Amino acid sequence: MKLGVLTVPLSDMPLREALPYLRGLGVQTVELGAGGYTNPAHLRPEVLLKDKSEIRKLKQLLKENDMEISALSCHGNSVHPNREIAARADQVLRDTICLANELEVGVVNTFSGCPGDCESSERPNWVTCAWPGDYPEILKYQWEDKLLPYWEKAGGYAQEKGVKIAFEIHPGFCVYNTETMLRIHREIGPVLGANFDPSHLFWQGVDIPTALRALKGMIYNFHAKDCRIDPANTARTGVLDTKSFTDAAGRSWIFRTVGYGHDAAVWKDIISELRKIGYDGAVTIEHEDCLMSGREGLEKAVEFLKDILIYEEPGTAYWA
What we know:
InterPro entries: IolE/XylAMocC-like, Xyl_isomerase-like_sf, Xyl_isomerase-like_TIM-brl. The protein is an alpha/beta fold. It has helices spanning 15-25, 45-48, 52-64, 83-103, 134-160, 178-188, 199-202, 208-214, 231-237, 264-276, 294-306, and strands at residues 2-6, 29-33, 68-73, 107-110, 164-168, 192-196, 219-224, 226-229, 253-256, 282-285.
C-alpha cells in the first residue's frame, strides 16, 4: 500500500510547492481534483488537453518529486435533473477521463449522481425510505430511466480510454451503500467500481471490514477519512441530520481526521481487511474536518497512518 493525499487542502499552494511538502511528510501518491465539486486548483483538464507540453511538464514535476498520481477526481452529478448542470458535469467527467488516459492514470473518482423524481424535476431527490409507494416508483425511474442508461454510455467511454470509474459511496447520491454499489457494478460491469470512503458509511451503521469483504475486487480507490458520531445528539435525533456541518456541537455526526473518530484498533482492522481482499493501492487522506485546518488535519492523518499501513507483501512464512 502507498500513503496518499487528495491535495484539495493545499489549494493555496502551487503544485510545485505542494509536492515537495508532501514528499517531506512521507506521502507517496497524490489524488488531483479536476473539477465538479472538487477544487481543481492543481489540475485543469481543459487546459492540459489543449497543450500536451503542459502534460509533459506535469509528468516531469511528479518525477522530480518521486510522486505518483493515484487517481483524478471530478465529483459531480452527471444525472442532475437540470440539464445544464448535468451537461457541465458530464463534460468535466469526459475531460478528466481523457486526461487520465494521457497521464496513464487508471482511475477517475466521481459520484454516481442523483436524478430528480420525474422528467420535470428541477432538483435531485434522494430516496431514503420505502413507503409511501411514491418512493419505490421514484427509485425505479431514477435507476432504470436515468442512472443505468447514463453510466452504460459513460462507462463505455471510459473503457475505450482504458480508465476505470470509482464511485465515492456517498449519501445524497444513488450509490450510497454496499448494496447500491454492488447493484451498479453488476448492472454495468467492472468498469465501475468503488472509491471506498469509510466516513460516509460509519454513520449509516455499516461495519467497514464487512463492507470491504462484500466489495472485494471492485475497490479501485480508498479514502482515509474518519467520522465521529455524537452519542447524545444521535440518541436524541438519530443519524439523518440536515444541520450545517459548521454546527459541530449540534450535529449527530461530523467528519474527522483519521484517528479522531475511531481509534487505531478500528483503522488497523480496516487496513488489514484491505490487505485480505487484495487491495494494494493508495490509501488517500481526504481532509474535511471542521475542527482543524487543512494543513494540521493532513499532517496529523499522515502521522497516524504511517504506523498502520501495510507497505510490503508478506514473505515466505515458516509454515508455508
